[in-house]
Amino acid sequence: MIKLYDFPLSTNARKVRIALIEKGLDFERIQIDLGKKEQKNPDYLKIHPFGQVPALDDEGFIVYDSTIINEYLEDEYPEPPLFPKDSEGRATARLLEDLRDNYFNPPFVEIFRETRSKPEGQRDLKLIERAKAEIAKCFDRLEKELEGKQYLAGSFSLADIAYMPNFAALERFNIPVDPKHKNVLAWIARLKARPSYAASAN
Known about the structure:
about 10% strand; four-stranded mixed sheet; Glutaredoxin; alpha+beta; 9 helices; Glutathione S-transferase Yfyf (Class Pi), Chain A, domain 2; about 55% helix
């Protein structure tokens, strides 16, 4: 049985949950409570040396980092495929997942940290607005990438899965998608309609 070391509110952990569900794989969830700093416990650091979630244990083989975990799942459990077969398509999927991991997701983390433990009147509104502007820049890029396509790499792939966990945070933090981004809005609606989106929510 696959074990997923998980925290429900982690967008990166949800990214792996979505991939596991899309693959139809059974898995056991082991919650690591980030609020209680359980990720820094010595026993967990043996699993993930950087003290983060998610981590995955597949019959004794441990892998961490959500992007690497999902590529491992694609290699180990290739059906149904979640990567394009051609090299250009695979490179496109990786490039757009990199955009999510390094430019789209970090501003959400900044907003989450700023709002999680501070009353509304004590929050750094400039930091929050700056983070929202960074997210909007990514939507500009995604709008172009989605021109003439339903999904980022052509067919539904790990690139699309990477963004799905952040859609709930758009609502939670009241981050609108500009109506001019018609491709993005249609893509978000398409992805939220997939059963794995609701099934991975908690």
